[in-house]
């Protein structure tokens, strides 16, 4: 049994294999969160998302401030449960139900194994379910860490509104997303810097380009303006960026 604060965690590459999914020429079928991806996910996300570890640590810090007694916390699109574990670790309170949701059975199976392997001070339950069908209630904190970008754009507003309705006043939504910069030249620059980051982390040009093709129409990024407007329309009083590295951004929205 490993303590929550002891490395490695589910967001750390040491937990499973290296991501070689896009090394073979011709690997361009649409990206899916299947067993192959789940098996290498800690390595994939660590080497692909600039600032990922910082965001996970930040979620623990935000949990310390936002999680309140007699409420619940949600990790929507939890993958292997890194944000759920961070909330449990960061919370000042015990016995706060932390509910992780993911619709990939491969992720959910591995997530449950990870969670079992950790001593945590709050009960964590993992459900294999669509976020669109998840009931959210008495929430003091909800995390969407690089998940909304994979959901149909037409369904995003309703999800944010549903989260708003399930949050207690003063509750927080952490929304992390790959974004599109409004200025086309800056957007191209951020994409280039992201690709440089991936190259520096050992991905080849072929892997980068094949994954880019596989993510087309699967991961659909939006501008920060679109996210702020959606949050405002849902009723959030505040939405501010608390972290950004290149085109990867995390917003804190408060009810
Ligand atoms: C990039 S991963 C999230 C990473 C994770 N939040 C973390 O911090 O490590 C996106 C996850 O969202 C899940 N997902 C995508 N669409 C979903 C939906 N409609 N309902 C539930 N889960 C969904 C995928 O299966 C995948 O595990
Ligand atoms: O690898 C990329 O280019 C990404 O956009 C990163 C990204 C993400 O943002 O969710 C895409 C898919 C995987 O889930 C891991 C990371």
Automatic annotation (TrEMBL):
Catalysed reaction(s) here are:
prephenate + S-adenosyl-L-methionine = carboxy-S-adenosyl-L-methionine + 3-phenylpyruvate + H2O
Q: Assembly and partners?
A: Homodimer.
Segments forming domain Methyltransferase = 75-171
Root EC class: transferase
| Protein name as catalogued | Carboxy-S-adenosyl-L-methionine synthase
* Pfam hit, one: Methyltransf_25
Database matches in NCBIfam families: carboxy-S-adenosyl-L-methionine synthase CmoA, PRK15451.1
- Give GO terms: molecular function aspect only: carboxyl- or carbamoyltransferase activity; S-adenosyl-L-methionine binding
Q: Which organism is it from?
A: Pleionea litopenaei
Q: Which UniProt keywords apply?
A: S-adenosyl-L-methionine, Transferase
Function, please?
Answer: Catalyzes the conversion of S-adenosyl-L-methionine (SAM) to carboxy-S-adenosyl-L-methionine (Cx-SAM).
Q: Some GO term, biological process aspect, for this entry: which one?
A: tRNA wobble uridine modification
């Amino acid at each position: 049994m490993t303590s929550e604060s002891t490395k490695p965690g589910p967001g750390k590459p040491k937990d499973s294999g290296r991501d070689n999914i896009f090394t073979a020429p011709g690997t361009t079928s649409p990206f899916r969160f299947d067993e192959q991806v789940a098996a290498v996910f800690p390595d994939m996300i660590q080497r692909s998302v600039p600032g990922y570890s910082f965001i996970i640590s930040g979620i623990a810090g935000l949990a310390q401030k936002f999680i309140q007694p007699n409420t619940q916390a949600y990790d929507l699109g939890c993958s292997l449960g890194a944000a759920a574990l961070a909330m449990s670790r960061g919370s000042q309170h015990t016995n706060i139900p932390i509910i992780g949701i993911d619709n990939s059975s491969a992720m959910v199976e591995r997530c449950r194994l990870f969670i079992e392997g950790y001593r945590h001070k709050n009960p964590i339950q993992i459900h294999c379910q669509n976020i669109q069908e998840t009931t959210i209630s008495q929430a003091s904190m909800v995390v969407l860490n690089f998940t909304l970008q994979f959901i149909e754009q037409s369904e995003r507003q309703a999800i944010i509104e549903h989260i708003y309705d399930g949050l207690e006043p003063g509750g927080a939504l952490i929304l992390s997303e790959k974004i599109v910069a409004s200025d086309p030249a800056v957007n191209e620059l951020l994409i280039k810097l992201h690709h440089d980051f991936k190259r520096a982390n050992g991905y080849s040009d072929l892997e980068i380009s094949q994954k880019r093709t596989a993510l087309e129409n699967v991961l659909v990024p939006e501008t920060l303006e679109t996210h702020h407007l959606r949050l405002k329309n849902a009723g959030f009083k505040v939405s501010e960026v608390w972290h950004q590295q290149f085109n990867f951004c995390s917003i804190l929205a408060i009810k």
